[in-house]
């Protein structure tokens, strides 16, 4: 490869400033401090611009204090300038970096002319206001002050934040309302020789275009879409032969699936949905449903150029056929390094197969033929209705049936879960913790969930947001042990008074 030319570096820096400027203008935070690409590489025009990690807002002294302004702006999106629903004036907003035990003190100001709100996807925090309460509505021109207290045992890895506005999640996330949240400490589980390795965020955001804007309404999930990495079209990622890098793969778009592949190497998975695995495992392809994350180690192969690509993926007879697409160009060059041995044993974790089960639930996903109504146990979402209760401190086993001819996913707030089986096939417990998993068409999964630390009304849903907005979501109330019997009585009473809100 050519050495970095001064002109190329200057061009890169100018473009970076172009991308970051709106964020800097809309925000008084400290400048990005960590995890960013630095302009040390030359630009190879044919391969695109170097990958830029999003700017970072990090906690200090146990607190992350920040502001997120939601507004419509015309901004760079991929290789285009389009109106997007931005956080702090960017399609790819800052990455929030915190540590276990930190507090997030976040003011969201809504400058779009409809309700919005914020969900900290995957964080084990209270579902009550002013924390991760998705029933909050922040109206046009209003600000809301969120406070999230992370527990000391918050798993370390990659999370994300996004709009969870009732019936508007798809439009708002597709428009741009999503960013990465990192709980620091994942590299601490690596052997000393691998600590401090280069780390990249690979945030997968896609967009369809309508006129001079990102299309947000009446989306056809299977229609042609532009897939970006950190908002960039086909950026270039540099790696040395034998070098080990850590990539935070996160599907933070509204609806679509990815099936990632990188010719000439493989992915060593070290965390799923922000939860470190017990045993590292290697795969050639990774299916990532909307909302899911995989933290992986990647080792540079032989010198050359390869594409980080998504392979064709079919979500079933009533679903979508996503075509192959190149996402990034990986250039392997420079001094060859001795490929480090990747450890197998990684992080400690609880195995819920051994847990005492307090209750079993059966969850059934259905949809109508025209795909306008999506239901859980025969009902569309109603924020005013409580569909299920669980008791704090217990473990439950849920059997979730997808009675449709397309993939849906299962995502639950507040607590993660262990995937026990898929269509009766036992899952390896050394890497079975998730907060979002695919349920293939006509399939059944079994999960176990420990309801720890927090009571309150929370939700679970399909994370294909088009389906969530059209009803595939339910309310779960986590109640203290002594409230369970009283709560059941209340729920029965509520059912009699149940009124569907218009949808
Ligand atoms: Cu779905």
The helix count comes to 4
> Hey, roughly how much beta strand do the residues contain?
35-45%
Q: What profile does the largest beta sheet have?
A: 7 strands, mixed
CATH superfamily heading of the largest domain? Cupredoxins -  blue copper proteins
How far apart are the termini?
57 Å
Gross geometry? globular
* Helix content estimate: under 10%
Total domain count: 2
Radius of gyration: 22 Å
Please report the first level of CATH classification, the CATH class of the largest domain: Mainly Beta
CATH topology name of the largest domain = Immunoglobulin-like
CATH architecture of the largest domain: Sandwich
Structural class: mainly beta
Number of β-strand runs: 36
């Amino acid at each position: 490869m050519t050495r970095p030319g001064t002109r190329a570096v200057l061009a890169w820096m100018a473009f970076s400033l172009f991308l970051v400027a709106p964020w800097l203008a809309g925000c008084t935070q400290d400048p990005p401090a960590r995890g960013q690409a630095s302009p040390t590489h030359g630009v190879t025009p044919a391969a695109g611009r170097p990958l830029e990690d999003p700017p970072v807002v990090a906690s200090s002294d146990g607190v992350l204090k920040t502001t997120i302004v939601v507004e419509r702006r015309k901004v760079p999106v991929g290789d285009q300038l389009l109106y997007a629903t931005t956080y702090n004036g960017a399609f790819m907003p800052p990455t929030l970096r915190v540590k276990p035990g930190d507090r997030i003190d976040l003011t969201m100001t809504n400058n779009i002319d409809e309700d919005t709100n914020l969900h900290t996807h995957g964080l084990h925090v209270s579902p009550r206001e002013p924390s991760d309460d998705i029933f909050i509505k922040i109206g046009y021109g209003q600000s809301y002050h969120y406070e999230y207290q992370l527990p000391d045992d918050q798993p370390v890895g990659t999370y994300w934040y996004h709009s969870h506005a009732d019936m508007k999640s798809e439009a708002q996330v597709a428009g741009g309302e999503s960013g990465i949240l990192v709980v620091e400490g994942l590299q601490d589980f690596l052997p000393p020789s691998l600590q401090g390795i280069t780390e990249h965020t690979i945030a997968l955001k896609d967009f369809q275009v309508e006129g001079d804007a990102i299309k947000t309404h009446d989306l056809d999930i299977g229609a042609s879409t532009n897939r970006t990495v950190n908002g960039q079209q086909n950026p270039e990622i540099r790696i040395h032969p034998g070098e080990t890098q850590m990539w935070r793969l996160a599907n933070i778009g509204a609806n679509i699936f990815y099936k990632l592949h990188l010719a000439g190497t493989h992915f060593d998975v070290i965390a799923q949905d922000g939860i470190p695995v017990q045993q590292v495992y290697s795969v050639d392809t990774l299916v990532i449903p909307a909302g899911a994350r995989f933290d992986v180690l990647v080792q540079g192969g032989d010198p050359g150029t390869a594409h980080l690509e998504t392979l064709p993926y079919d979500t079933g007879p009533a679903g979508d056929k996503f075509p192959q697409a190149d996402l990034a160009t990986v250039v392997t060059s420079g001094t060859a390094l001795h490929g480090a041995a990747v450890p197998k044993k990684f992080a400690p974790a609880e195995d819920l197969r051994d847990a005492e089960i307090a209750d079993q639930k059966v969850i059934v996903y259905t949809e109508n033929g025209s795909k306008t109504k999506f239901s859980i146990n025969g009902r569309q979402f109603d924020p005013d209705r409580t569909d299920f209760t669980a008791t704090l401190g217990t473990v439950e086993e849920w059997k979730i049936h997808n009675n449709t001819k397309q993939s849906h996913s299962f995502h639950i707030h507040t607590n993660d879960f262990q995937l026990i089986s898929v269509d009766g096939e036992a899952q390896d417990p050394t890497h079975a913790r998730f907060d979002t998993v695919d349920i293939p068409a006509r399939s059944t999964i079994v999960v176990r969930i420990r309801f720890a630390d927090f009571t309150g009304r929370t939700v679970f849903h399909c994370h294909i947001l088009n389906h969530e907005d059209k009803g595939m979501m339910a309310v779960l109330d986590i109640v203290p042990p002594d409230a369970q019997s009283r709560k059941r009585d209340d729920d029965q009473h509520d059912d009699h008074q149940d009124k569907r809100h218009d949808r």
